[in-house]
Amino acid sequence: MMAKKKQELNAKMREIIRILHKKGGAMSTHRIAEETGFSYVTVIKYIKQLEKIGVILPHGN
Predict the structure, then answer these.
(1) In total, how many domains does the chain have?
(2) Closest CA to 9 of 53, 41, 57
């Protein structure tokens, strides 16, 4: 299953994960957008996908 998840991750998702890891795991979507240079809409899109496949936990968990 982990191999499948890795295949589903694109470069932008991996960059978001890298930033979250570097900054301790909890950041606002606006801050992630600033750190990555991605648009806010792009960050929201990929955060939702990462939550859906179980790579990150939804906010509040």
Answers:
(1) 1
(2) 53
